[in-house]
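Retro notes, item 3 of 5
We never archived the inputs for the zinc ion complex last cycle. Fixing that now. Sequence and ligand:
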Amino acid sequence: MLTVDYITNRVFNSRTYILSDEKYDSVWLLDCGDTDKVLERIGKKSVEGVLLTHVHSDHIYGLEELIKRFPAVRIYTNAAGVDALKSPKLNISHYHSVCPDISIDAPDNVCVLKEGDYLEVLRTPIQVYETPGHAPSCLTYIIAKMAFTGDSYIPGGKVFCGFPLSNHKQAAESVERIIRLSSEYIIMPGHTKVNGL
Ligand SMILES: [Zn+2]
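Structure as it came back at the time:
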């Protein structure tokens, strides 16, 4: 049976979700921050793939180390995300002193998703929605009874649209779309709220 767990990362309390199943020796992640915490949590299992909710530094800063550790790991994002993985300005690591500049050019590892795609992970079907606004690379994944929204929708919070490629109108449309989904799915956001923030 699919188990969903998460860790709260040191940078901006972003979350890395861990999808696992006792029948499999590998796990899947949603976003990748503190790899040390992930490795501690997964024990002897390996990481087979990472589904990126969007390509901003606080959600991807562990990827480089993860690829070193698991060279066959597959990283899923959309076309805008592929560009952002390579560019410290697009992935905003350039503007954050908390992470060094991040540039990941790993064509063998990166897989491109688009609206309406289906994947199967640990024998669980996954549905992909493009939910841009916060960033062009924003994807929402429907997995079992959950919607993993990254920063496209954080319940009780406002979608941050202050980045150069943010788009307020798209963000509002994406939020509306996700709210419609939320009657059917449990929202799994991209950050842990700390001290009410
Ligand atoms: Zn973000």
